[in-house]
Design goal:
- One of its GO terms (cellular component) is condensed chromosome.
- It is found in: Nucleus.
- Its main location: nucleus.
- Belongs to the Fanconi anemia protein FANCD2 family.
- Keywords: Isopeptide bond, Nucleus, Ubl conjugation.
- By secondary structure, this protein is mainly alpha-helical.
- The protein has 2 domains: 74 residues; 178 residues, no CATH class.
- 60% of the residues lie in helices and 3% in strands.
- The protein has 13 helices and 2 strands.
- The protein has a two-stranded antiparallel sheet.
- The chain is flat and about 65 Å long.
- The N and C termini lie far apart (46 Å).
- The relative contact order is 0.08.
Length: 347
Amino acid sequence: MGKEGGDFDDDMSALRIMHAILEVMQWAGAALPGGDASSGWGVAHMKRKLSLAAGGVLEEKWDHCPISPGDFSAGAGWKGRNMQIAEVVALHVRFADNPVETVELLTTEHLMQVESGRGAGARRALESHPSLSSATLPVWYRVLHEELGREWDGIVAEALALQRGRTRADPSKVEALAQRSAGAVKACSRLVQIVKLHESKLAVQAAAVKHAGRFIELFMKSLAFWEDHWNEHKERFTGMVKELQKGTRLLQVICCEGKSRKERVMVTKVPGLKRTLERFIFRMKAFFHGTDLVNNFWMGNLKHKNLRGEEVASQAEPGYSDEEEGEEEEGEGEEEDGPNSADEADN
């Protein structure tokens, strides 16, 4: 599958058949006494096989079988196949051995290599992944956020279940969950950084606002778990907050720029994200004031910068009208929080 000379439609059909077989295997595993969707015979092997097969499809050019007959231009194999790209990227990530690590790997090693701007260079696909170019980046970006969100939902649900348990949680389970949480935060932060590299792509900004905002909401929901395990995991949690701050600062910039440009796709999303970011600031302040790191916590003023890192005057950012936002909120895009954040506020 994904081999040169193959047929795109045949390979897509093969992927869908493999996915259907996997779903049957998962159903059979869940139907066993005491079983679950991951306990069926060969489920792990089939997941890995499906993920690798999907990855192979994404790495093939398919120029020999374009969607438009007779179109043999460079990159023609993936032209007009955004829906298929979304489907295959989702299969590749979801059924990987470690979906969160896969999201981070694809982001840092591939999405960050996509050329920005305009012209032939920007349209050129990656040599390693012909399905990934400036034109298809928004599709990849959205799907990676969605798949990370699926994993993050599960991680937070597990954390809350452990926190609500009547007996002391198994330390090995807590450690594994803490590691997965830190990995998810790192992956989310890396994804948000992509916005800075492709500031002109509104679809990328809109996806970041939607999915990163929800990620932060769930992060705040999991704070009770970290309160219970603060003594063992204070350094890891502090590192997670610092990592997440890298993303929240960019999201603050997106809010300000979205206000000034007033693009329709952003107008409805930015107010909710602003409220989430403000809650994050004050929830972190309250959290650290209840720990032994209270003296390490600072709230500093951020310089107003655009996505290119250039300083801009704050008064140049007009606010939304009352009809658009409902009410004006305090601390708009200027304050950030976290351990030692005063040292980093102007970075």
